[in-house]
Amino acid sequence: MKYEVLGRLRVSADNGSAHIGAPKVEMLLAILLIRANRIVTADQLMMEIWGERLPRRATATLYVYVSELRKFLNRAGAEQSPIVTRSPGYMLTLEDGGLDYQVFLDLTEQGRALMREHRHEEAVARFQQGLALWRGPVLGDIGHGPILSAFTTWLTEVRMDCTEMLVEARLQLGLHRELVGPLYSLTAESPLRETFYRQLMLALYRSDRRADALKVYQAARSTLINELGLEPCSALRELHQAILLADDRVLCAAG
């Protein structure tokens, strides 16, 4: 059985894939997956599901949700329930490779290692394989409790890091012209992420579009000052200066 959290939560088995219709039962499964092979206390589960405003008989209701989740996983193809009762709560047992975000993390780390070895084509393949697992926002934004929020923030950041490394590897392979369009989109989607501006400036300069590269710097500087009251980081300022001076020693080695 496979669990997929890189998008709306779903469970896949030999007989196909399935979504949980009940939002709170879906949240329960999400929390147990995030803490797979570890006990999650009943108090933690109730805090994630209901927050500070617990309903009457919250413990009994949680027990009902666990029962419903076990039934769902059984219908989805589990030979035996992976949900185990362990005082003071519950645990979901999970085998290696059964959770898509763990596969994504493995591929990202493989790509990172290949980058260090300057094996950029292989790194690109790993990053692309990892990013291809994503179907949308983490867990489809199903909840905002402390466990779910921290996990969503962390994994979204890893996704952005993976995207940055993919672009970096493709720049190293001389694919700057192909990257211009996607990088414009990335700077629009993440206007405070300075790495994408730097990569776009490099891609434009290497595509003989020096003036456009300088315009990107001005747009980045304006955004950062207006939004955060900050000047661009030193890497961005240094790249801007190198473009002004047409210093190919820096520009051809940058990235």
What would you note in describing this structure?
This protein has 255 residues and is mainly alpha-helical. Among the domains are: 2-92, Arc Repressor Mutant, subunit A; 176-255, Tetratricopeptide repeat domain (Serine Threonine Protein Phosphatase 5, Tetratricopeptide repeat, Alpha Horseshoe), CATH 1.25.40. Helices cover 62% and strands 8% of the residues. The chain has a three-stranded antiparallel sheet with strand order 1-2-3, with no helix packed on it. Strands 4-6-5 form a three-stranded antiparallel sheet. Helix 4 runs parallel beside helix 6 and helix 9 packs antiparallel against helix 10. The radius of gyration is 23 Å and the shape is elongated.
The level-1 CATH class of the domain at 2-92: Mainly Alpha
Mean pLDDT: 92
Radius of gyration: 23 Å
Order of helices and strands: EEEHEHHEEHHHHHHHH
Could you state the CATH homologous superfamily of the domain at 2-92? Winged helix-like DNA-binding domain superfamily/Winged helix DNA-binding domain
Q: Would you give the CATH topology of the domain at 2-92? A: Arc Repressor Mutant, subunit A
Largest sheet: 3 strands, antiparallel
Structure in a nutshell:
This protein has about 260 residues and is mainly alpha-helical. It is built from eleven helices and six strands.
